[in-house]
Amino acid sequence: MTQTPPDFPHDVAAVHEATDRLLVSVAKLDDEAIGEPSLLPGWTRGHVLAHLARNADALVNLLTWARTDVPAQMYVSATARDSDIARDAGRTLDAHLEDLRESGARFDAAAAALPDARRTFEVEMRNGVVERADRLPLRRLAEVELHHLDLGIGYSLDQLPPAFVDAELAFLAEVKFAGQPTVPALELRTDDGRRWRTGRTDTAADGEGPVVVTGSATALVGWLTGRSDGGALDTTGAALPAVPPL
Question: How far apart are CA 145 and CA 154, in angstroms?
Fold first, then answer.
């Protein structure tokens, strides 16, 4: 399946806009609300915000690698990543807001500094995932938009920008879940007629075909990312299969 090509300048601008929306939402909270549970099991809103700030810096490391050709780890280690999130989760609202603004600005600067000729350079993300530098803004955009939902402060699936929804759906179908043996064979269909085949590819031998799942692009993204139960989707009577968490 051909991967949808990125639009680097558009994606960088989208990250900046999504970060601004996140900051507006978070600024309405108070210190007590920061310590309350998020929609992610075991994480407070402070954990989510700390993760977002450190993820921005982790992607700066990769953008710098792509620009300079000097290898850099996204995170020092999985343990260090988790420790940083736990360390920063309990900070005040003002501290979180300042960190989000500053880390977001560092991401913007690193993206702006990446020359056109280096955008196809490949870097290694967590868990050995290899990614082109020009797709890192889309990776960051997904972090900001989906974790904005996870804060549980009124930002809903229906508020996700259509351009992000389309890009995320294509990424999930064409990259994240494509050919994965742990993902059931799926044919995703949007209400406007777009289609993707994704998930397992070894169904012919046992006579199984893909489960056809139809709905809006937003509903599909909500289900595939674990941000909805898929109740708005149509499977023509078949059971909606489970997909692994992101």
Answer: 13
Q: What is the pLDDT of residue 204?
A: 55
In whole angstroms, give the CA distance from residue 70 to residue 232.
Answer: 47
Region for residue 184 given its phi and psi (left: phi exceeds 0; alpha: psi -120 to 50; beta: otherwise): beta
- Residues of the chain with pLDDT below 50 are 1, 205-206
User: Tokens representing 216?
Assistant: 């809006």
Contacts of 84 (CB under 8 A, 6+ apart): 50, 54
Nearest to 34 by CA among 18, 52, 19: 52
Conformation bin of residue 207: beta by default, left when phi > 0, alpha when psi is -120 to 50: left
The pLDDT value recorded for residue 246 is 86
Cα-flanking dihedrals φ and ψ of residue 44, to 5°?
-80, 175
Beta strands in 139-199 (DSSP E): 186-190, 195-198
The number of residues in the chain equals: 246
| Tokens encoding 77 | 């280690």
Stated pTM of the model: 0.95
Closest alpha carbon to 243 in 193, 35, 16, 235: 235
Identify residue 172 by its one-letter amino acid code.
L
Tokens linked to 152: 């549980």
The whole-number pLDDT of residue 206 equals 47
pLDDT at 205: 47
Instruction: To the nearest 10°, report the CA torsion of 246, 66, 165, 194.
Output: -100
The pairing of strands 211-215 and 195-198 is unpaired
